[in-house]
Specification:
Two copies of one chain form a homodimer. In chain A, 34% of the residues lie in helices and 28% in strands. By secondary structure, chain A is α/β, with parallel strands linked by helices.
C-alpha cells in the first residue's frame, strides 16, 4: 500500500523481514534436529502461513478451535491447539479431528473423563505442564498427578498420549539473553525430569514440546526437546526488543497512524490510532508504561525505534505520543507516523479484520 | 442465546437494563432541556441504535468516519464525529456530508486551512476545547487562539461554526458523585468563560457540547450547556461502578466465558476469554490492576459483581481469575462464568464481530 493511500490506522508488515525471521527460526530448528511447529496466533493469516510453507513448515500451533478450523480450511493438516481443551467446543473439535491430525491439551482428570465419554475420533493429546509460568498446566512437581493423568489417557483407545507440553511464559518477565537462557534451562530440566519419571513408569514415548519467543530466539541448542512452538518472532515487537529477544531491525510490524493533533506546549502529538487499533497491551520503558514507540522508517522497514517518542496514552481511537523537538518540528497534521506496538499479537488481532 | 449454546467467549447484553439506561439519560436530557446526542462508539450497533430511536433520539455522536458512515447507512442523518478531523479521510467525509448533517471537530489553524481548501460541502464545525483532560483540543485559557480559530472558521462560507465541544475525560480519574460533579462544574465554567469571550467578540451563536458518562450520570442540572454526548452509560462497566457513575445493577454487559482450568492450590480458575475478548483495559481495585470481575447472574442480569473474584491476568486467549473458595468449589471445567469487563467500550469492540 502506498503511503498516500493510507487513510486510517493500518497494519504495515515488512514481508522481507518477516520472511527472514521465519527462515532464521526454521533453520535453527532444522540445525537442532527438532520439529518446528510455529504458533500462528500472532499473524492469524493464511497469506503469512504461506511464507512458513515456503520454509518447509507443515505442522503448526494455534490457540483456539476457531483458528485451527481457519487454517485447516487453508490446507494445514497437522495442528496443535495449544490451549486447555474447551469442553464446550467438543463437537466441533471432533469434526475437525476427523479431517486433520489434531493435537489437543489437557491438564485435569475431569477433562480426560469428558474426552473419554464424548470423543470417538483419534486425537493426539499433550499433557500441559506448568514449568514455572503459573498459568495453565499441572505443576511439574506434581508427579503423582501427572502419572495418573498419563495412565488415564492411555486407557482411552482413541486418544494418543503424545507427551509433555509447556509454555515458559515467564521468559517475558526477564531481561537479556543470559536470563532468558536460564529460564529455558530450568523449564526444560523440569520437563525432562517429568519425562524421566514417566519413562520409569513404563511409558514408551514421551515427547517434549516447548515454545516461547524469548527462549526460542536466544537458545540454539534444543537437543533436550522434540518440538519448538514460538509464534511472536514472525513480527517481534517493542516488548521483545526490551526483553532482549531481538534487535530493533528484526521487528517486522508497525502501525501507520494519521497525525490529527499537534500540541507543542505539551510536547505531544495526537494520532488516529487508539486501543482498538494498537490494543492496550503495554510494556515498561524506563519506569513508564507505554503502548508503543514511534519508528523511523525506510519504506516498510524500521530504521530506528524512537524510544524517546513513546505512546503514553491510548483512548478508544486516540493515541498520545510524547515527542522530542526534532519530531515535533518535523510533523504536520495529516502526516503519517509509524508505531511499533508493545505487543504485536494483540495489535495484529485488532487490525487484521 | 441459551447458556447451553454458548461455546466461546460471548458478549451478553441485558437489553432490558440497557434500554432502562437509555431511557434514564434521555429523560434527564429532556427534563434539563438539552439536546441528547449519545455517543455510539460504545455499542457500534445498528440494532442497539434502534433502542435509542425508541426513546426519540435522532442525533448521535461517533468517534470515526467509519462509524459515521456505518450509522448513516443505517438511517441516522445527524451525526457528529467527535474526533479531531482526520485530513486523510477528507474525500470520504465530504461525500458523507453531502448525504447527512455532519458535524466535525477542529482544534488547529492548519486543519481549518485544509478544510477551506479541500472541502466544498456544508459542514458544521465544533471547536474542540480542552477543559482539563489534556488530550485533544485548544486549552480553554488560550483565548486568543480560540478567537482566531473561530474567525478563521467564519470566513469559510461552507463551514458553519457551531460552538465549543469538550470531553471532560478527567472525570474518569476521580471517585464519587461529589468529585465528579466538581469536575463537571469546573469544566462547564471553563467552557462558558470561552463562550462569553466569543460572544463579546461578536459571535452570534456559540453552542456548548459536553459529554462523558461519569458527569452525565451524576449531574441533573445541565442548564449551562446545549448538548450532552455520553456513550458508555448504555452498558456501563466495572470502571464506572468504581468511579461512582452507576450501581452494580445498572451494568448491562457481561462476557460469558467457558472455564477451561481449575487450580485449587492457587485459588485460580482459567477461562477461555483473553485480551482479544475482554481487551486489556484495566481498572484499579483495592490497589491491584484488574481486567474485570466475575458476576453472579439471573439470566442476562447481574445480581452481584464479585469483587473478590477479579480477573488478574489476561493472555491473548486465556484469562486468570482469582476466586474465593465458594466459587472455586462450585465450578467445574466446562462451566460458564460471566465477567463484567473493566471497560465495556473496548470489550464490545473486541467481541462485536
Amino acid at each position: 500500500m502506498k503511503e498516500n493511500d493510507i487513510q486510517r490506522p493500518t497494519l504495515i508488515i515488512n514481508e522481507e523481514q518477516a520472511r527472514a525471521n521465519i527462515k532464521r527460526m526454521a533453520d535453527k530448528a532444522r540445525n537442532a534436529g527438532v520439529r518446528f511447529r510455529p504458533h500462528f496466533k500472532t499473524h492469524q493469516s493464511a497469506l503469512v502461513g504461506q511464507w512458513f510453507k515456503d520454509q518447509g513448515v507443515s505442522s503448526i500451533t494455534v490457540s483456539s478451535y476457531s483458528m485451527a478450523a481457519y487454517f485447516a480450511d487453508h490446507g494445514w493438516n497437522d495442528i496443535t491447539i495449544a490451549f486447555p481443551i474447551n469442553l464446550r467446543e467438543l463437537d466441533a473439535i471432533q469434526e475437525l479431528a476427523s479431517r486433520i491430525e489434531l493435537g489437543v491439551l489437557v491438564d485435569s482428570s475431569a477433562t480426560v473423563s469428558a474426552l473419554e465419554k464424548q470423543i470417538s475420533r483419534p486425537m493426539r493429546v499433550w499433557l500441559k505442564i506448568d514449568t514455572g509460568y503459573g498459568r495453565s498446566g499441572v505443576h511439574w512437581d506434581q508427579t503423582e498427578q501427572i502419572i495418573q493423568l498419563a495412565r488415564q489417557l492411555n486407557e482411552v483407545s482413541h486418544l494418543t498420549f503424545r507427551g509433555l507440553l509447556t509454555h515458559a511464559g515467564h521468559s517475558y518477565h526477564v531481561r537479556g539473553s543470559e536470563a532468558i537462557q536460564a529460564v529455558y534451562r530450568e523449564s526444560t530440566q523440569r520437563l525432562q525430569s517429568v519425562r524421566t519419571v514417566l519413562l520409569d513408569e513404563g511409558f514408551r514415548t514421551v515427547e517434549l514440546s516447548t515454545g516461547d519467543t524469548p527462549c526460542c530466539s536466544v537458545v540454539y541448542d534444543f537437543a533436550d526437546v522434540d518440538e519448538i512452538r514460538p509464534g511472536n518472532f514472525v513480527y517481534y515487537d517493542l516488548m521483545q526488543t526490551q526483553i532482549g529477544s531481538c534487535s530493533d531491525g528484526q521487528v517486522a510490524v508497525t502501525v501507520a497512524c494519521p497525525v490529527v493533533g499537534i500540541h507543542p506546549d505539551r510536547s505531544e502529538i495526537i494520532i488516529y490510532g487508539g486501543g482498538v487499533h494498537l490494543s492496550k497491551d503495554s510494556v515498561e520503558l524506563e519506569g513508564h508504561r507505554v503502548y508503543g514507540c514511534l519508528a523511523e522508517m525506510d519504506g516498510n522497514a524500521i530504521i530506528t525505534i524512537r524510544r524517546d517518542a513513546p505512546v503514553t496514552g491510548l483512548s478508544q481511537e486516540h493515541g498520545v505520543i510524547h515527542v522530542p523537538s526534532d519530531i515535533l518540528n518535523s510533523l504536520q497534521v495529516g502526516d503519517l507516523v509509524y508505531i511499533v506496538p508493545a505487543h504485536s499479537c494483540m495489535a495484529v488481532n485488532c487490525l487484521r479484520r
